[in-house]
Design a protein that fits this description.
Layout: H1 4-13, H2 22-27, H3 32-49, H4 66-109
Length: 117
């Protein structure tokens, strides 16, 4: 079992769900899940803003046209969303297990009730 003090401290330092702050975002740059999430947001924004226009690619001479954009919309975006949904499920299970460990540690640290004389 992990050190109870570490469990309790990590629980207190956990971030609340919601938009990440810039500071937290900079800490998560090497997190592959954060990278996929950021890529998903950037790609959906790009597709929304380039509606009907080709998307220039920096490392190939031919921009993405209607056919390539359709592939992104129909194949890549849904795959990224499935990945992110599965990650949320995994994270929820980890959080539930962590909460259960914290409750167990807190219960073991609770003072024993005095026996009636």
């Amino acid at each position: 079992m992990p050190d109870p003090a570490v469990l309790l401290a990590s629980h207190r330092c956990a971030t609340a769900p919601g938009p990440m702050s810039l500071w937290l975002d900079s800490l998560c740059r090497e997190d592959p899940v954060a990278l996929v999430h950021s890529s998903h947001l950037a790609l959906t924004r790009l597709l929304r803003t380039h509606r009907g226009k080709p998307i220039r690619r920096l490392w190939i001479d031919h921009p993405y046209g209607e056919e390539e954009i359709t592939l992104l919309e129909e194949e890549l975006i849904p795959a990224m969303e499935l990945f992110l949904a599965r990650i949320q499920e995994i994270d929820a299970a980890l959080e539930a297990a962590h909460e259960a460990e914290i409750e167990l540690v807190q219960a073991s640290m609770a003072p024993e009730p005095l026996a009636a004389a």
